[in-house]
Amino acid sequence: MSEDIFITEERIEGADDGPLAGRTVAVKDNISTEGVRTTCGSRMLEDYVPPYDATVVSRLKEAGATIVGKANMDEFGMGTTTETSYFGATDNPAAPGHVPGGSSGGSAAAVAAGEADLALGSDTGGSVRCPAAFCGVVGIKPTYGLVSRYGLVAYGNSLEQIGPFGETVEDAAELLDVIAGSDERDATTREAPRASDGRTSDARETREALLEADETYADAATGDVDGLSIGIPTELLEGADEGVVETFWDAIADLEDRGAEYHEVSLPSVEHAVEAYYVIAMSEASSNLARFDGVRYGQSGGYDGNWNETFAKAREEGFGDEVKRRILLGTYALSAGYHDKYYKKAQDARAWVKQDFDDALAEADVLASPTMPVPPFELGESLEDPLQLYLADANTVPVNLADLPAISVPAGETDGLPVGLQLIGPAFGERRLIRAASALA
Amino acid sequence: MSDDAVSPEEVRHVAELARVDLDDEEVDRFTGQFADILEYFETLDEVPAVDRDADLANVMRPDEERESLSSEDALRNASETEDGYFKGPNVS
């Protein structure tokens, strides 16, 4: 495995038949697999073997899929390049010498390299969509609550969702059909409301509602964009790489040729989305990762000294730089005297972002942007300046703040490097996104 | 941190709160990086107060006995156990 796609290569066979019989799936290494080590890309969990399956893994097995390995990732999902993995960086099969994106870089690379037909990742601030864009494959970030997170090792749990990768939109949609649905073990899951339950205001929505009543996600991959209204947030094009922007507009022109129309929209709140996202994600991380004390699982700090000393030693040895950085900044943002200044303001910004998206989606069926404002970085290029790397998430994090679904679909290339187009829809509007995105891949 | 840069002492203090030991080199590096990142977070000051009426409902279930992990499975990843319990370090 020259590309370092998997942390652990081990086959887990599913049921003899089912909708995914004969299909292979790579599973991100922060999703628990009973009896197969699950490291989160961290030294902390180098030897951790979960005693139970995540709900999505049980569903894969029941659907007849064969899991082929646990895919490489940024440590605990914290990164945009998969280079923060304790187990080494993954090369990008679609652009050798470049990063595959992150944090689900191994999952996207597995599909791009043909090591697996499909893959699962998790998306806290773009961790499915970024690697999909960088590796030239399709990735879906579902609506918050559509997919169970039981057995997903938590990082920023008000933001994250497990999502599917495929070579085509239809492939990814088939995997979404298998993993979506409520789960009594994850109280944040919801049964997706049927479109026909909602009020419909125009002919297009009525037609869509009729189509959607019993349609699977895969059925929605018709490529029909006739009459589709696309809103393009101007803020998400500002400052983007020229080649990326050009490729984006070519893809929009392609959709126009098939009957879609577009208009520009403004989302002033997204100017604050990156800082709001990082304050919230780091705060949640500082709390979620407090469980790693080396007693019940993970790197042990030994038994010399008192528990504060041994826990601090376990965490010094077990966590890498980016994880320490986020835990410390999250602890700082929540500490006495700073909570109102950072965390509370970030929650205000989150509510503002939600309102902006609601308003924009009242005037458009979907919103479109480049998934990433830049093409894939060269390996090793970007790790020195964490803040610059955070800013690369500008187009993906607003979607997590607003709990909305989004899809990244290949839009073309710039200088031989893949460019992704992101479509954003209303809550539980996955079918609409799949229908539109399948016009491109 | 409102007016001036982050000090190494503040980084050490937060690391202690978070129970993460840092070596001197890490403290130096994080001190510079945190100054940049926190300065950027300050732009949240420009965010207007927003009406936040989250439409959330608690999800409850009856508190009934149900199957769970065996203690053997639950203890399998611990570095040390004793008499069917996790073994932790001294409390003080």
Using brief descriptors, characterize the structure shown.
heterodimer; A: 441 residues; alpha/beta; Amidase signature (AS) enzymes; eleven-stranded mixed sheet; 13 helices; 11 strands; B: 92 residues; mainly alpha; two-stranded antiparallel sheet; ATP-binding (chain B); Asp/Glu-ADT_sf_sub_c (chain B); EC 6.3.5.- (chain B)
Descriptive account of the structure:
The complex is a heterodimer of chains A (441) and B (92). Chain A has 441 residues and is α/β, with parallel strands linked by helices. Chain A has a single domain (6-273, 345-437), classed as Amidase signature (AS) domain (Amidase signature (AS) enzymes, Alpha-Beta Complex). Chain A has helices at residues 55-62, 105-112, 129-135, 169-179, 203-212, 242-257, 273-288, 307-318, 321-334, 340-362, 386-391, 397-401, 430-437; strands at 6-8, 24-28, 66-71, 118-123, 138-141, 161-166, 229-233, 261-265, 366-370, 406-414, 417-424. In chain A, a hairpin with a 2-residue loop joins strand 10 and strand 11 (417-424). The radius of gyration of chain A is 21 Å and the shape is globular. The two termini of chain A are 27 Å apart. Residues 195-201 of chain A have low confidence and may be disordered. Chain B is mostly helical and 92 residues long. Chain B has a domain at 12-38. Chain B has helices spanning 8-17, 24-41, 71-75; strands at 81-82, 85-86. Chain B has a two-stranded antiparallel ribbon with strand order 1-2. In chain B, strand 1 and strand 2 (85-86) form a beta hairpin. In chain B, helix 1 (8-17) crosses helix 2 (24-41). The longest helix of chain B is centred in the middle third of the chain and has 18 residues, at 24-41. Classes of the chains: A alpha/beta (441), B mainly alpha (92). Chains A and B meet through helix 7, helix 8, helix 9, helix 10 and helix 11 of A and helix 1 and helix 2 of B. Chain B: GO terms for molecular function: ATP binding; glutaminyl-tRNA synthase (glutamine-hydrolyzing) activity; transferase activity. Chain B: Belongs to the GatC family. Chain B: One of its GO terms (biological process) is glutaminyl-tRNAGln biosynthesis via transamidation. Chain B: Heterotrimer of A, B and C subunits.
